[in-house]
Design brief:
By secondary structure, the chain is an alpha/beta fold. The protein is built from 14 helices and 9 strands. The protein has a single domain, classed as Rossmann fold. It has a 5-stranded parallel sheet, with helices on both faces. Strands 3-4 form a two-stranded antiparallel ribbon.
């Protein structure tokens, strides 16, 4: 990819379920800042591991041919930032950019001076939260333990922070990388926002007391098995093909319009009936022990890598 004729000043890079959306909305409250109000996935929309849903359409399997349609993809990306004042700090956020191995060299090639912000959450809690997100959005029909055994895919991979961060540190200068531990962000949100604003050279003071900071509050199923059964019934609804159109609008085309026409009227009522609980269901001690041991091994040395002692927030890393 070649550098395009506009500049994105900063990018918020995952991890998923680590406060990325909250940070985006807080920064977007500042008049000096603009971030599109949803994830664009420009740098990794052709990554089949991170976006398997994007590869499915009514005719079967497809993929994004970015290198064959450079003008279309570049102009589509640029269209999100059209008509902004020159003084505006332009940003983007994605919960998949940290995990995708395609992203770091692409960002470096197009925006070599961009500033990057990485939101990192306790990898066990992130993985569990990721699982409940998949349940809630109809993307799994398995219980957590069965999914960890037979269909881990991104559920585990998106918590392998060490290798993902090393990819960025190998090609970006340290002063372009800002690491925020989610648990510290939640405990001292104003302090961390002030720190991020200083890092991005945002002059306007952001007072979080005047902002709604509760975004995407998770609801859990009252009846877990019933929710998984319903996910199986509604599974076709959750498969989409994500493409930039000729009019530069992101389209999500349903895989099975006839099936969806029958199921969609039932979906809102179904969700209200089974996703009402706000207390997170417990997982077994053995499952938690497995995840803790696994992620301590996969993320060994993470404190030194980000120059922050994560054991204060993730005590099983001691």
């Amino acid at each position: 990819m070649e550098k395009i004729n506009f500049e994105v000043n900063f990018i918020i890079c995952g991890a998923m379920k680590a406060g990325t959306t909250t940070l985006r909305n807080i920064l977007n409250s500042c008049e000096q800042v603009f971030i599109p109000d949803h994830e664009i996935y420009f740098f990794d929309m052709d990554d089949a591991l991170q976006h398997p849903d994007f590869l499915i359409n009514n005719k079967g399997l497809t993929t994004h041919n970015i290198y064959d349609n450079l003008d279309l993809y570049y102009n589509w990306y640029k269209s999100f930032y059209d008509n902004l004042p020159d003084s505006t700090l332009k940003g983007e956020d994605s919960t998949t950019y940290l995990a995708s191995n395609k992203v770091p060299p692409r960002i470096k090639n197009i925006f070599p001076d961009v500033k990057l912000i990485f939101m990192l959450r306790d990898p066990v809690e992130r993985t569990i939260s990721h699982y409940w997100h998949l349940v809630k959005t109809g993307r799994t029909t398995m219980k957590l333990e069965k999914m960890l055994k037979y269909k881990q895919e991104t559920l585990l991979q998106r918590s392998y922070y060490k290798d993902q961060i090393l990819r960025y540190k190998s090609i970006f200068d340290d002063d372009q990388l800002k690491f925020i531990v989610f648990e510290e962000f939640i405990e001292n949100m104003q302090g961390k926002i002030d720190e991020i604003c200083n890092y991005l050279n945002i002059e306007e003071k952001i007072n979080i007391d005047t902002i709604n900071t509760h975004f995407h509050k998770t609801k859990y199923p009252i009846f877990h098995r019933l929710r998984l059964f319903i996910n199986h019934f509604f599974k076709d609804i959750n498969r989409y093909n994500y493409l930039p159109s000729e009019n530069y609008g992101a389209s999500r085309e349903s895989r099975n319009e006839f099936v969806n026409s029958l199921k969609l009227p039932l979906l809102p009522a179904t969700k209200k009936l089974i996703d009402l609980k706000s207390t997170k269901p417990k997982i077994s001690i053995s499952t938690r022990n497995f995840l803790e041991n696994h992620f301590v091994y996969e993320n060994r040395g993470i404190s030194k890598l980000i120059d922050q002692d994560v054991t204060k927030w993730w005590p099983y890393f001691k």
